[in-house]
Amino acid sequence: MHEVGIASSILEAAHSETARRPGAKLIGIGVRIGVLSGVDIDALRFAFECITAETEDEKVVLTTEKCPRVNRCEDCGHEFSSSHLSPFTDAPCPRCHCERTKFVSGDQLDIAFVEVEEP
Ligand SMILES: [Zn+2]
């Protein structure tokens, strides 16, 4: 289950962010997960609970935001989300109906925010 590895790197990154503010305590982490990242959000949340259980991070709240696949049209430059389509098929542009669209995002795994409690 590679979600455990992902959960620990998220936690680690949040801790180094928290460490920049002396005395601050980590209380929440928000992550953005693209539908194409291959990350199972439920498994990730479960993994996060497991690795923080009975540690100082037990109360840290993990917020996950699922991001759709976004394509950009090569003809008119319109960017659109194609979450209503299978993430693995090509999507025509909804504005000009051109078929030449390019995948621009949807495979991200980013930390959106780190929430800390200041002393
Ligand atoms: Zn277009």
Can you give a write-up of this model?
This protein is an alpha+beta fold and 119 residues long. It has a single domain (3-117), classed as 2-Layer Sandwich (hypothetical protein PF0899 fold), CATH 3.30.2320. It is 24% helix and 32% strand. The protein has 2 helices and 6 strands; from the N terminus they run αβαβββββ. It has helices spanning 3-19, 41-52, and strands spanning 25-34, 61-67, 70-73, 79-81, 101-105, 109-117. The strands form 2 sheets. The protein has a 3-stranded mixed β-sheet with strand order 2-1-6, covered by helices on one side. Strands 4-3-5 form a 3-stranded antiparallel β-sheet, with no helix packed on it. α1 (3-19) crosses α2 (41-52). It is elongated and about 55 Å long. The mean pLDDT is 91. Bound molecules: zinc ion (ZN). Zinc ion (ZN) is lined by residues 73, 75-76, 78, 93, 95-96, 98.
Keywords:
119 residues; hypothetical protein PF0899 fold; three-stranded antiparallel beta sheet; 32% strand; binds zinc ion
- Top CATH class: Alpha Beta
Task: Please report which band the strand proportion falls in: under 5%, 5-15%, 15-25%, 25-35%, 35-45% or over 45%.
Answer: 25-35%
Task: Quickly give the CATH architecture.
Answer: 2-Layer Sandwich
Instruction: List the helices and strands in order.
Output: HEHEEEEE
The total beta strand count reads: 6
Q: List bound small molecules.
A: zinc ion
Poorly predicted runs are none
Please state the overall shape, judged from the principal axes of the Cα atoms: elongated
Q: Measure the end-to-end span.
A: 36 Å
